[in-house]
Amino acid sequence: MSNTSPALEFKSSTFFAPILILYTNDLTAIEQTLHEKINLAPEFFKDSPLIIDLRELNKQNLDLDFSQVIQLLRRVSFFPVGIRGGNENQNKQARTLFIPIDTVREQGSTLMIGAEAAKQETAPQPAAPAETAPAKEPVRPVPIPPVSAAATLVTQPIRSGQRIYASGDLIILSQVSAGAEIMAEGNIHVYNTLRGRALAGVHGNTAARIFCFDLQAELISIAGDYKTSEDLNKQTYKNPVQIYLQNHALIIKEIA
């Protein structure tokens, strides 16, 4: 009897990985800063996949030996899984090291920037304004924000080692244990004790927030900006709080 079950199948999934943005080609400074970051949250960064963003580095025309960076990251227990913003030589080195290249996003950004630059170069210079009363700007409709995906409700405790991901908001009624990780593209609501790691707005949603009844988290993050337990204010520790992003800084505010 022949076996009709398939040998394999592909499924669409969401993959979360931190992005490492390099601003210098000084390997000593990079390694020192990496150790400082890892020491703040060792369990969060341990054996973590990583995407390397070289756009800021290349804006400064700083040369970089990409292979040495990969060796450095692997030495401190990171696993590079992608590169973006690399130049031709860096992309070539990445292919040699079997590191995927985020070509779709790079091409999209390049085309957008090129189009805007072309418009600015070909646009005629505006004439000097006449001394007349300024015209009132037309009233523009207020854009309606897109409707987020349905919220994910979890009623069971999240135990150490478990990872929960929600494509919209994430609502948890039980406690989140130390060593657990909860992630959401939208807001996170924990109506109990939050001890593990909570990451909201993981796709860059800076308007996302984290709410919990009892803040004892190992790490909190919104749109990539994070704080560890060492950074938490003692006044808000073990209290009901809301956490939001303001000027790239996490604000932790107690809920009265």
UniProtKB/TrEMBL annotation:
Positions of the UniProt region annotated as Disordered: 118-140
Q: Cite a single Pfam family from the UniProt record.
A: MinC_N
Q: Which residue intervals define the domain Septum formation inhibitor MinC C-terminal in the entry?
A: 154-252
Q: Which residues form the Septum formation inhibitor MinC N-terminal domain?
A: 8-76
Composition bias (Low complexity) maps to 118-136
HAMAP family cross-referenced by the UniProt entry:
MinC
Main function: Cell division inhibitor that blocks the formation of polar Z ring septums. Rapidly oscillates between the poles of the cell to destabilize FtsZ filaments that have formed before they mature into polar Z rings. Prevents FtsZ polymerization.
The record's similarity note reads: Belongs to the MinC family.
- Provide the protein name: Probable septum site-determining protein MinC
Species, as recorded: candidate division WWE3 bacterium
Q: What is the lineage of its organism?
A: Bacteria, Katanobacteria
Which gene is this protein's source?
minC
